[in-house]
């Protein structure tokens, strides 16, 4: 496999499980060193911790840092951890939560929980990385939004709002940081099959999930590897003139539904 990220160091928030794990492993398989920043070290779906698998099975090096993205101190520590590998080149702001909320019944605490992690967490993750990237002469920031950042849905208005905010933040930061040699892009996954899918979307029974899949032109759910391939591209020099972009990874659903 071509080492598209050879010599680069990345920090991936939420990198222990699901999409974040897929991105971390893909980065390492393409030659990057990775800081896995997450609340817990072991994957929620089971198996070898992501950083241990990278160290055992790839040419990349990896470390784990406990990180709560609502804590600026934790975010700065995660960025600092990349100094072991020569300093941060790529920041993937992947950590997030999914919640369904009835708009008329949503409490302030429920609203705050989603926005603190999905919006505020991305803002200050990007800030911590950008400060170091400015010093280092550039880099790539990849923000994980969602199909929900494009399409409204009555079932999870707070989640939609948080992910739409990530999309707008991405464009603003691309404008602000472009002169510093920093590219900023967003990925918008659709239905991605992970071991956590049922936990993350408790209201999605098998029949509803299958109905959704039948509306996707490719007639399947995505995988963490589908998202990771786009992240590798955005992190690599192949995307050297790509910034302020939102890339849907949804099998074509948004533009054909």
UniProtKB/TrEMBL annotation:
Q: Which UniProt keywords apply?
A: Oxidoreductase
Q: Which GO terms describe its molecular function?
A: oxidoreductase activity
Check the record and name the InterPro entries matching this protein: NAD(P)-bd_dom_sf, Sc_DH/Rdtase_CS, SDR_fam
Reading the lineage from the top rank, the first entry is: Archaea
User: Which family is this protein grouped under?
Assistant: Belongs to the short-chain dehydrogenases/reductases (SDR) family.
Name of this chain's protein: SDR family oxidoreductase
Which organism does this sequence originate in?
Halomarina rubra
């Amino acid at each position: 496999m071509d080492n598209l990220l050879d010599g680069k160091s990345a920090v991936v928030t939420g990198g222990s499980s699901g999409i974040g794990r897929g991105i971390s492993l893909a980065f390492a398989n393409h030659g990057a060193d990775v800081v896995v920043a997450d609340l817990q070290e072991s994957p929620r779906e089971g198996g070898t911790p992501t950083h241990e698998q990278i160290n055992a099975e790839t040419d990349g090096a990896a470390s784990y840092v406990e990180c709560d993205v609502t804590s600026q101190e934790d975010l700065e520590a995660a960025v600092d951890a990349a100094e072991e590998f020569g300093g941060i080149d790529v920041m993937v702001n992947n950590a997030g939560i999914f919640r369904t909320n009835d708009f008329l019944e949503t409490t302030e605490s429920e609203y705050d929980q989603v926005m603190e992690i999905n919006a505020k967490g991305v803002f200050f993750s990007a800030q911590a990385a950008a400060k170091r990237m400015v010093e280092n002469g550039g880099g790539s920031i990849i923000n994980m939004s969602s199909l929900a950042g494009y399409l409204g849905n009555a079932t999870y208005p707070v989640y939609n709002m948080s992910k739409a905010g990530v999309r707008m933040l991405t464009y603003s930061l691309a404008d602000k940081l472009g002169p510093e040699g920093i590219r900023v892009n967003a990925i918008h996954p659709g239905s991605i099959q992970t071991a956590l899918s049922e936990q993350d979307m408790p209201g999605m029974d098998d029949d509803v999930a299958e109905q959704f899949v039948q509306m996707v032109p490719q007639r399947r759910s995505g995988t963490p590897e589908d998202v990771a391939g786009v992240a590798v591209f955005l992190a690599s020099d192949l995307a050297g003139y790509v910034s302020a972009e939102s890339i849907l990874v949804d099998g074509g659903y948004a533009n054909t539904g």
